[in-house]
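As a warm-up, study this chain.
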Amino acid sequence: QVLLVESGGGLVQAGGSLRLSCAASGRTFSRNPMGWFRQLPGKEREFVADIGWSVTTTTYADSVKGRFTISRDNAKNTVYLQMNNLKPEDTAVYYCAAAEAAKYRYWGQGTQVTVST
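Now compare it with the structure written out below.
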């Protein structure tokens, strides 16, 4: 059974930082692109960042560029999202996902991030 488990969410003040982790089990994703998405209250899930298997290819949503950094440790089958200078509008449930055949097919259960003013 493939599992993606996010951790590291929580409550933080605006301007603060959090580091999300997503540990995969059940198979290795070292050759798969992985990404982070988020769902704000009352809105559809949106793309945040992704990273290719080579770790040098990363993409970010405009809203998080310069503040968030995605990385991965293939030896640990884990992807990270370092979030700095958090804003209240970053409050959301954050999901990690693993892609296969150009589609995100595996999803975690999500972790809540709440940024207070």
